[in-house]
Amino acid sequence: MTKGCCQLLWDEIAGHKTVCSSLRRAVEQGNVNHAYMFAGPSGVGKFIVARTFAASILCSKGDCGACNVCRRVMEEKHPDVTVVRPEGKNIRIETIRSIRMDAFKKPVESDHKIYIIKNAERMWEEGASTLLKVIEEPPDNVIFILVTTNVGGVLPTIRSRCQEIRFSNVPADELKAYLMEKKDISPERADLVARLTGGVLGRALDWCDEPWRLTRRDDVIRCAQALRRVDLNQALVLARELYRDVRAPTDELSVAYQDKKSMLTDGTLDGATARRISKELDDECKREQVKEEIRGVKELFSTLAWWYRDILLYGQGARAALLINRDLEREIAEEADALSPVNLLKCIEILGDSMRAAEQNVPAQLNIESALFGLQEALYV
Ligand SMILES: [Zn+2]
């Protein structure tokens, strides 16, 4: 499995330098393990690295990125690379069983079979123990890459069979350089996006492609500025505005799913099948909406928390370079004059609690309202 020194696909990846070079070395030296666990926060690029790793194992030229093999691996169309995702909440036991059977068949066109399992923590016990059986004694040419945000959720016996590769957020400077090159944006804007998204690659790319996210941040901060001058009733109005903004993308989702459903009635499916698929689409839409809403609420709270953190630091004499919202230095200075560190710390604490509540599925509207009431009380001067 010795490979040349092509490095094109690897060079496309933002950050994760140590991880990538150790995986590359493993391929070049023919030293690839049977099972890996890629662990780290959501959106940092674990899956892109997994696909690149798979391509570099199969590509006869290293990881040229241009050949038929590389292209199909990256598009998830290569017959010897299987990507498994949860369907609904979990990965189906049937899927794991079919992997177990499939793993013992010969590869279709290369020397290896690779299985990339996304959200590997989302497996029922039966699925996990079925997977364990094949990971324990894998056929020679089979490689598993389990991808997870939560290693604690993976069966310890599976975990102990995998080489664990830890991913962390991309350092702001590396992310900035990557965004400038790939997205052709100004250094100031790349810097701001890298900071606001906390080095999470997936989020940073979203921020570049969807400029409304920056407008949204400005709206949230305007609301935070207003909050220290309003009473409870007005705080409730602000909370409703913020909730409406959080809801907006979920409404778009429901329109998109309606479109999908309308295609079912073109007469190509029989009634029962169309009804079943329609029901599945409804369920999927609901799940996606819940996910999107939680994501929106968490983004809202994190925008607010960074804002108060910036004011706190600035008030204590921190340099502007340390600010997340560096473009709003004047506004931050103004708030720092008006607010005391004790109140600001209280705000950050409230937002931490609200963030945890969002993770525990507290209804978004209620969560936003109670956060804003808490902030209003802490800030009102
Ligand atoms: Zn290639």
UniProtKB/TrEMBL annotation:
GO terms for biological process: DNA-templated DNA replication. The lineage of its organism: Bacteria, Bacillati, Actinomycetota, Candidatus Geothermincolia, Candidatus Geothermincolales. It comes from the Bacteria. This is DNA polymerase III subunit delta. One of its GO terms (molecular function) is 3'-5' exonuclease activity. The gene is holB.
